[in-house]
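User: For my dataset I need records formatted as: sequence, then structure tokens, nothing else. Please produce one.
Assistant:
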Amino acid sequence: MTVQDPWFTVQQIDSRTYAISEYGHWEKVHSYLLLGTELAVLIDTGLGIANIKRVTDQLTDLPLKVFTTHVHTDHIGSHGAYDAIYVHEQDQDWLINGIQGLSIEEIRRNIIRDIMLPLPEAFDPAAYRPFQGEPAGLLRDGESWELGGRKLRILHTPGHSPGHVCILDETSGYLFTGDLLYDTMPVYAFYPSTNPADLVSSLERIAHLPHIRKVYGSHYSLGLDPAILHEVRNAVIYLRDNGLVRFGTGIHQFNGFSIQF
């Protein structure tokens, strides 16, 4: 299905998978809609500059659950438009009570920095406030979700946030990595609310997953070759062997991605 929208770019990955991207913002945010025969899952809801539900309503009429990779502003923007929101328990407090470590002034500055498309008329940056609310349920490490002919597995991958998760589509061989792995700009674990050691352990975990056909991060290039996971394995060894897994060691560049501590 072709969807035209002034803010979101919809790209069909396959007949049951869509990327819903916000290329007008400097972070190039991707959310992902995964369809089964009985259930749909939306991985994250974007920045909240425009309501992503107007797009998902065009793409599916299946019951829909939102799986939150982590509770940062650019991943929970349209959470308030959906009833069935799920999050890992270690990010649950942030979802209910607010994100630690960032002031509302800083969040508002970042949300409109380097905008390359006209902002929707209904969007008021001065009134922007990240979603806060109770989830419908929790995502647990290792649990499986059956969408009808399509099985997803939750992987707890902390570091970027305490409750960060990746979502493995075991049926299609897609790995949705949230902010654990993407290209172009550094993956970061330099805020007080991040954890360098956890991030590296989480990278090590995904680097050894078998049968991955494509890696889909939440920012920048859409769809990375699974060969990047071999580079991740090398990066984990290098960072540990050189004592770099700690705050303040800076940006570390590898083949296809970088990390900032």
